[in-house]
Amino acid sequence: MADYTVDKPAKLGEFLISKESLQPWRLPLLVSAGAITVVRGPAALTNLTAATQLLSGDKVSVASPLPVLTPAAADYRDYCFVPGSSSDPAVATLQKIMETRPQSKRLTSPASLEDFIDALSDSDITNPIRHLYIGSHANEAGDLFMPLQGSSSPAAAIDYEALQDAGKNNILKIDPKLLEPRPSASGQSIAAQFRVRGCRIGKAKPFLDQLKKALGGNISVNAPKHFEHVAEWSQPDGYFEYMDYDFQLRRPKAIGTKKEMVTAFLAAGLTDIDGKPIATALINAGVPANVKKQGEQSTDTDVKVPFAPKIFKTPLSFRYHREQFRTGMSGFPIDPDPAKLPARKAELKNQLLTDTASWPQFAATHPFPEWMRLGYSSIDEFLDGFTWTFKYDKKKKILFFNGERHVYDLIIPITESGTTMLLCNFYPTTSGTAVVEKMDAADKRLYETS
Description:
- The protein is α+β, with helices and mostly antiparallel strands.
- It has eleven helices and 25 strands.
- It has three domains: 2-62; 73-224, no CATH class; 245-413, no CATH class.
- Strands 16, 17, 18, 19, 20, 21, 22, 23 and 24 form a nine-stranded antiparallel sheet that branches. It has a six-stranded mixed sheet with strand order 8-7-9-14-15-25, with helices on both faces.
- The longest helix has 14 residues, at 341-354.
């Protein structure tokens, strides 16, 4: 039994949150079980609720260990955090989805990921926790675009190194007791998941592993492997989410014509989530006539949706950008100049691997090295994936360098295999319309879990 003496007036719910991190939903169940008592003078207070006013000198007792609680499955909620401005259409629509999903509650008071974790023991948790969701823009390099802490810039990204620091400082660690008890289905307990919703972040498996560690290692992390899209629908009214394939080519030299681009994508052996080849006609339709134009070029394609008879026009998109390894030239001391390109590249490789003070993300022991974040399977593939420019300063005896590559993305909606039926989840805002969920977090074709 834990016994407390109230030192200043407070509501019972607020007092127990401060002393026991006791989520509000637990209070009525614990009171019913006789696990919480309040004594004022010689008598015990009755009809306790979270709003019961405590006075200085009251004695509050909480049973230890607490009794096992068994909420109904319908009482559980997914708690969601989607920061950002409503001026960003994707963010605003994802916020609406998290507010519309069944048994979901979006928390609006947290300003950062750390705040969201802290809120799990606060007054916002009015129902037991099923799963936790966070949503933002993201990428396959392991960048999650949301503030880590209240002091972070709104435009800051959480990367692997930020999660390492968070883990060391325990700022994201979740007390597993906050996730108990667990709901069950068909007699099996449903484990809690920390579900990240952001484009392709599931491809950055080391990032997910590090996020799991930072959260304390007691909750699995789940994230999409593909582009995520969200949109609003009318008749029936609601919001839906769906995914796109992102087929990417990375080249040290530019591809010049549509014919060459289509040939390159076909040579890459593009397959759908079931391992079947992507149709040549679809690739040809997605690649524009002018493949030298940087930015995004799109053309509509018709797909069906499982929640309405109307056709949905969604884009087939092609993106091209030239990418520098670094902004401006970097350099390292060497004497004499290796002069020949192969020798210079060999020296650059040695520099990246050995000068860990200057290039920590290239260290041979790094769990998520930069070459992996850029989409390569080895440092040698990374070096061959760029066209390198070298300049030797004879006076300073420094070899300056930079690299350039060309990145092409072919973005195609994910449909049920062999059909034009969009794989999606639909959450209606009008009564009498059914929820449709075709994208299951347990589907390994769509999501990665750590």
